[in-house]
Amino acid sequence: MKYPYFRGLEADRYSFYRVPKALIKVDLFEKMSGDAKLLYAVLLDRMNLSLKNGWQDENGNAYIICTIDEIMDSIRCARQKAVKLLDELEHEYQLIERRRQGLGKPNLLYVKDLYAGLSQSNYWKYENQTSGGLKSELPGVWKSNGSKTDINNTDSSETDLICSAQSGENISGEMREDERYRFYFQDKLEIPILEKNFPHDREILMEILELLVETVTSRKKFLRICGEEKPKEVIKSRLMKLDSMHIQYVMECLKSNTTQVRNIKQYLLATLYNAPTTIDSYYAAQVRHDFGWGGRSN
């Protein structure tokens, strides 16, 4: 079979499983099998559906139901391989947890929060400086956010508390929820790269970043967006799928808008929420305009 070349926006119609960059870059996962990383990405994708459906236990922890047969079908492997990969994720890397429901019932499968776990364990912050991994920074964090104090040469003191406060940690060493999501979006949206490409739009980028963090960490069960109340988890799931292309698109929409916006925060949130579903038609319209198609007859 011969596959054609890409000639325009065809790549945008693909759907993807998202493999976290940390599984590729962090030394801790260097020996994890590629199939296990793929399975984790598949299970993450299933988590989005569970959150939308409100599948949570009595403690508020989200779970999925994914049988061995479904895993075999998802990644095209034999039963023995599927079981082995689940064991690798659970016992070697603690990225999932299986709980029995009882005889004849499928296990509940909890997919663990990779970024939160690395942050709480301070793995990214204190990683061995001789390694070839992420060194001492969280992904996507500007160097100005880090402390100038040499951590290796600093004893426990008031300086440590100041550094923890600056990096968004509490006294117990755990990172606040808002900071975890801020680091996530900085990495996922490639904010430092966008800053370099759009040096005059840094304030807009920061407003977008903070709005995303504020929205996904909201304690409200329903949020008003696009003129109607929507479940917070549905909005969160959509926003977590944004990438740098979506942010560039949103910024272009802001610049091209000529109507008066009374509530810029609501307008910006609505644009971010709709970005995954409107970006294709927006750029397709631009292509038609640039090439003078515009529905004219030959």
Automatic annotation (TrEMBL):
Residues 177-291 form the DUF6017 domain. Keywords: Coiled coil. InterPro entries: DUF6017 (IPR046059), RepA_N (IPR010724). It comes from the Bacteria. Residues 15-89 form the Replication initiator A N-terminal domain. Residues 72-99 form a coiled coil. This is DUF6017 domain-containing protein. It comes from Faecalibacterium butyricigenerans.
